[in-house]
Amino acid sequence: MQGLRIAAVRPRPLAPLCNISSRLLVCPRLVPTSSPQQRKRPAVRFSVRSEKRDGSVATEAKPLVPAGNTVLSRKHEGASTDLAVLLPRLKKLVLPYWNESEDHNSVRWKLAGVFALTLGTTGVSVLFNFLGRDFFNALSAKDAEKFSEMLVKWLAAICLGIPVFVMRDYYQSKLALEWREWMTRRLTAEYFYDRTFYQVQAGALVDNPDQRIAVDVRNFTDTALTFSVVILNACVDLISFSGILYSIYPPLFGALAVYAVGGTALSVYIGRPLVGLNFQQEAQEANFRYGLVRVRENAESIAFYGGEDNEQRLLNNRLKSAVDNFLVLLKASRNLSFFTSFYRFLIQVLPAAVVAPLFFRGEIEFGVINQSSSAFNHILTDVSLVVYQFETIAGFSAVVDRLGEFQEVLEGSRTGGTGTVDPSKASVSDEEEEAGTKQQQQQQQQEAQQQPAQGALGAMMQGGITLTDLPGTSGRSLLDIQHLTLQVPSSGATLVSDLTLSITPGHSVLIMGPSGAGKTSLLRTVAGLWTSGSGRIVRHGQPMGREEGEGDIFFVPQRPYVVLGTLRDQMLYPTWAKFDDRAADAAAAAASGTFGATTASSSNAGSGGAANGRSGNGAASSSSDSFGKGGSSSSSSSGGGGGDGSKRQARRLPGDAELEAALRAVQLGPLLDRIGGDLDAVADWASMLSLGEQQRLAFGRVLLAKPRLVLMDESTSALDTRNERLLYEALRAAGITFVSVGHRPTLCRYHDSVLLLHGVAGAGGYENGSGGSLQGGGWEVRPASEMSVETAMDFMG
Ligand SMILES: Nc1ncnc2c1ncn2[C@@H]1O[C@H](COP(=O)(O)OP(=O)(O)OP(=O)(O)O)[C@@H](O)[C@H]1O
């Protein structure tokens, strides 16, 4: 039992199922649905979302559900037309670029330039207005000389004026593009910050985040800039042409005001449904596109199942939803078009009809009729923005709503229950707590503060679970789990109750238990991905992926993740994950089209490395057989604990020889030979490698990165027992401590202890080997040597 301490502790009362510090997820039992808290936040509504077989999405009116990874979604009722919701969202979306970007002064100047050019376009329009008057006066007076002169002036004005329009449009589009890039980068950063993408996906917090980032941002920046220019143009136009119109005939104003106000009111009335329909259209199109992407990603599984008919039906249903909605949208827009067309055509004659009596009485010249028509048109266009742009405004409102909602979810995740916080500062807002929850929170804070505070990398408060990272070189322990209780978010069932154990260097543990017992959930909790429950976890070290080349604790998920890129990139992920864009592009191309190993790019070929822009030459290798104990290729301490408590030095980038040795150590030598030993070969590895090869690749990454502790979830499930043995032996030889989740009794051989999880009581009603019914969330630890194949199989039922 060396290395594994088990504390016998009295079970504590279960933590209430709520995420006490999240703004988005609220405890269902403690906060009534109609509480003031909720009423204060009408914009953030959640409901259970389910997709029917026909592809349509049903939302159940269940605004509050337990915190955790439960399927949650904001209620999709279409776009909000409530200005009290839209305007604050618009403000939050617009302002950051102009106020917070690094070069906000320069972008403001660029905007000023676009506005100046817009003023220039108004000047050109006014000029044409006067030229037109004189042109038609000369024409009606049959003054050939004056007419020729006006013709020349007109042509000169065109030559000077057109460039102003063209350059305004060019700079406006360029600025919109820069804004889009900045906003996309910012949203992407927030999306990846603290693994928010996982929260969004696991909790289904918003539909189609990819569409929002890729398409909605583009529409938003384009339209926002266009609108601001249009509005400025309208204001300046209004002032300039009002003077002209007033000087011609003041009563024209009366006609214009009645016409514009009446028209605007009617167009709002007729076009109102367009806002919601545009919102739905965006979502339906995104659903259809996502369906196609899923088919591509799961092509083989679908083909094996013969599921093409089903997929086709599902896609057709999604397409039908999009087409149906678009039909309704077309009808609504047709009705609006009827009105706006009448509105547009009527004004062709209205000003002429009003000023005609003046002309007949000889009070004005013929050219003035043309001038008044032009001025009237300008002003009417200015004051009828809503009429003319209603469809665009409707689309824009939908985009503001979708992006605003997305941003709120990202902010909620950042400031909510999963963000890294200083435990000493972790506090709960009055709004989101009830007495019981608060008491528990304070208790956890105290516990967190009792932890050696100096050098703590940070702690995450996740629901009731505190996750703390400490520089992990004390040598005593790699991982401490204290009084951990895990619950299923949706049902509240207890998976693991009051688990306390420590993982010490060199002592490997196998986690076993029936399907659904909570094995993966336990690993998720250690990784900071599971939020439902209570207790504390202390990780003595830096998890992988925080900084390049660093990491003491490595997680290997159940499904190995194969990245886009070269074979080298596969091996370096995630420890040295910086990719050459060209290699990734080539990989993406390989993934979307034909595949087969190809060399990444000519710039990489023959360099013996540098697929990711860094030196990686074989000469740098310390040893081609560097996976035995003491053959470390890492400059940091590896395995076996020990250390000085200071920040670990980043690992040196492995060279070709080390990469090859790692590949051969995990029995991927034949693959390497097949592609001619080219580590920079690019292929659609996810399709090309068998699942077992992908699992071996995952072990190869671990061997290269040499973490102190690796936690693996059924990482050898696709392997034969010989390969399984070789991989575990390689890990042990490299001095890496491991915790594995697995079902196979043969795994017991490679571990020192076995943690048996009993799972949820009554869920399947299984019994242990001794025949007695077990408590929900029960667990026990046994020496692995005592676990014969029969005992293990007995236990697994
Ligand atoms: N996101 C989630 N929301 C709600 N319940 C979940 C979620 N993820 C897992 N669960 C539930 O938690 C329980 C434990 O799941 P877990 O994946 O940890 O089981 P496991 O022991 O690893 O099972 P297996 O051996 O089949 O992989 C299951 O009943 C599962 O349905």
From TrEMBL:
InterPro entries according to UniProt: AAA+_ATPase, ABC1_TM_dom, ABC1_TM_sf, ABC_transporter-like_ATP-bd, ABC_transporter-like_CS, ABC_transporter_sub-D, P-loop_NTPase
SMART domains associated with the record: AAA (SM00382)
Low complexity biased stretches: 437-456, 612-637
Keyword Nucleotide-binding: yes
Alphabetical UniProt keywords: ATP-binding, Membrane, Nucleotide-binding, Transmembrane, Transmembrane helix, Transport
ABC transporter domain: residues covered: 479-784
CDD domains listed in its UniProt record: ABCD_peroxisomal_ALDP
Annotated spans, Disordered: 412-456, 597-652
Transmembrane stretches, start-end: 111-131, 151-171, 224-246, 252-271, 341-360
Gene Ontology molecular function terms on file: ABC-type transporter activity; ATP binding; ATP hydrolysis activity
GO CC terms: membrane
Entry's family note: Belongs to the ABC transporter superfamily. ABCD family. Peroxisomal fatty acyl CoA transporter (TC 3.A.1.203) subfamily.
Protein name: Uncharacterized protein
Source species of the chain: Chlorella vulgaris (Green alga)
